[in-house]
């Protein structure tokens, strides 16, 4: 099983959802890397891209795709990104690449979220992948204590500072029975910037790359 091949298939299939003259929201990670390569083949027909991370910005520029300032937009037609896990309700865990805050902002402002994944990301229940949260550094001890209270095991992601100057805690062993209420609960802790549960605003279309090709899942 070559997961990179599956990621690539899903990424190229996302081109079918790109319309001429639009601005494309761009996620972060190895699957999105393939999407940026694919997008570069039609770069002359789109208006440009807004990026969810410094890493994706570098790749977009390298591929000759015009990067526009996120600040200038309040809505986008489409956002293309991947996930660390996705369930049957198209709710996701994201943030493996530490870009969850901008990813969540762009997801919220986009009419359509196209999630591109290899088949290993599809799960019945979210939570085997440790749930990332971006937090303000001084809140580390307080938030760790609160996470333990709700049954999780918090671990500081070492040597990582986010694009926003914050830190990441990865939460292990969390029982996520109700992703929306867990998203709300963790979001409400003072010091949390963003929780990597994308439950309230999940994906609209999921493109799953596997051996046979690309499966399309819709709401
Ligand atoms: C980055 C993310 C990514 O979408 C997620 O980590 C999946 O990455 P990859 O495509 O490398 O498997 O949420 O913050």
Automatic annotation (TrEMBL):
Keyword Isomerase on entry: yes
Protein's pathway: Carbohydrate degradation; pentose phosphate pathway; D-ribose 5-phosphate from D-ribulose 5-phosphate (non-oxidative stage): step 1/1
Any GO molecular function: ribose-5-phosphate isomerase activity
Pfam family, one: Rib_5-P_isom_A
Residues where substrate binds: 28-31, 81-84, 94-97, 121
Keyword Isomerase: yes
Top enzyme category: isomerase
Keywords: Isomerase
Catalytic residues (positions): 103 (proton acceptor)
Known EC number: 5.3.1.6
GO cellular component: cytosol
Reaction(s) this enzyme catalyzes, per UniProt: aldehydo-D-ribose 5-phosphate = D-ribulose 5-phosphate
Gene Ontology biological process: D-ribose metabolic process; pentose-phosphate shunt, non-oxidative branch
Family designation: Belongs to the ribose 5-phosphate isomerase family.
Summary of subunit composition and partner proteins: Homodimer.
Biological role: Catalyzes the reversible conversion of ribose-5-phosphate to ribulose 5-phosphate.
Protein name: Ribose-5-phosphate isomerase A
Organism: Buchnera aphidicola
Lineage per the UniProt record: Bacteria, Pseudomonadati, Pseudomonadota, Gammaproteobacteria, Enterobacterales
């Amino acid at each position: 099983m070559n997961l990179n091949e599956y990621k690539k298939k899903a990424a190229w299939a996302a081109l079918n959802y790109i319309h001429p003259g639009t601005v494309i929201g761009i996620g972060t990670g190895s699957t999105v890397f393939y999407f940026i390569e694919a997008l570069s083949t039609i770069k002359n027909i789109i208006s440009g891209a807004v990026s969810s991370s410094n890493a994706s910005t570098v790749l977009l520029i390298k591929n000759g795709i015009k990067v526009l300032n996120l600040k200038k937009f309040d809505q986008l037609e489409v956002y293309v990104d991947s996930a660390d896990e996705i369930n049957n309700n198209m709710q996701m865990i994201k943030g493996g690449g530490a870009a969850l805050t901008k990813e969540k902002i762009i997801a919220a402002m986009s009419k359509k979220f196209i999630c591109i994944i290899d088949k290993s990301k599809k799960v019945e229940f979210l939570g085997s992948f440790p749930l990332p949260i971006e937090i303000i550094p001084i809140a580390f001890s307080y938030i760790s204590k609160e996470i333990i209270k709700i049954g999780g095991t918090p671990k500081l992601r070492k040597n990582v500072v986010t694009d926003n100057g914050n830190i990441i805690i990865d939460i292990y062993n969390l029982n996520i029975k109700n992703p929306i209420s867990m998203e709300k609960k963790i979001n409400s802790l003072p010091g949390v910037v963003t929780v990597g549960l994308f439950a309230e605003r999940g994906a609209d279309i999921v493109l799953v790359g596997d051996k046979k090709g690309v499966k399309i899942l819709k709401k």
